[in-house]
Write a structure and sequence with these properties.
The protein is of the alpha+beta class and about 220 residues long. It has a single domain, classed as Peptide deformylase (Peptide Deformylase). The chain is about 30% helix and about 25% strand. It contains 4 helices and 9 strands; from the N terminus they run E-E-H-H-E-E-E-E-E-E-E-H-H. It has helices spanning about 30-35, 60-75, 165-180, 190-220, and strands at about 15, 20, 80-85, 95-100, 105-115, 125-130, 140-145, 145-155, 160-165. Strands 1, 2, 3, 4, 5, 8 and 9 form a 7-stranded mixed beta sheet that branches. It is globular, with a radius of gyration of 16 Å.
């Protein structure tokens, strides 16, 4: 999920890492420095349209390396969230570096997440622009609840509860959709979906060029 164009990412102020408040956090998370850039899958590829598998091995070097690579890939693509199947790995895992509507920056990862949303009678739906790193260059309005809770585990198997409001709640819902084989396009009327795909065809090469430049600037 791309960072919203109208929202700047807060740096070193009111940060929550893995759901816990911290005094500060570097603008470039340590995972970004350790990781390598992977190719971002594009809508239409099979790995994006089927449910992902549960992670069953925690604490492994491979899982840590995947998370590092996902952070670096997300950063290069100017993303706020990235699911594992967006780098071609069909595991139930996503990473995020995303502000909420109160200017709090949320940074972390969650494995095997289960999403809790408010009851239908109490939920508030917000229509807002949404994009996706796997639908490069396209944006459309999507209705999402303004609150969400993701329950899962960290890479070492420790339980996690991540609460989100506003834009961060949208990010949690967007990434959780990926893990069941859906993109935001699946939530659109047919006409809007076609328009989003047209936007992607018109803009994708420019998006890929920007990613290549940022990757080169970051080095390695």
């Amino acid at each position: 999920m791309p960072v919203g164009h109208e929202r700047s990412r807060p740096i070193d102020r009111r940060v929550r890492v893995q759901g816990h408040p911290v005094d500060s956090h570097p603008a470039l998370p340590p995972e970004v420095r350790r990781g390598s850039v992977r190719r971002v899958t594009v809508v239409g590829e099979d790995v994006l349209s089927r449910p992902c598998r549960d992670v069953t091995e925690f604490g492994s070097a491979d899982l840590s390396a995947l998370i590092d690579d996902m952070f670096r890939t997300m950063h290069v693509a100017d993303g706020a969230g990235l699911a594992a199947n967006q780098v071609g790995v069909d595991l139930r895992l996503f990473v995020y570096d995303c502000p909420d509507d109160n200017g709090i920056r949320h940074v972390g990862h969650i494995v095997n997440p289960v999403l809790d949303l408010p009851d239908p009678g109490s939920r508030r739906l917000i229509d807002d622009d949404e994009g996706c790193l796997s639908v490069p260059g396209a944006t459309k309005k999507v209705a999402r609840t303004d609150r969400a809770v993701a329950r899962g585990f960290d890479k070492d198997g420790n339980p996690l509860v991540i609460e989100g409001t506003g834009y961060f709640a949208r990010c949690l819902q967007h990434e959780a959709d990926h893990l069941v084989g859906h993109t935001y396009l699946d939530r659109l009327p047919k006409r809007d979906r076609k328009d989003a795909l047209r936007q992607m065809e018109d803009r994708r090469e420019a998006v890929f060029a920007r990613r290549a430049v940022k990757s080169a600037q970051l080095g390695r």
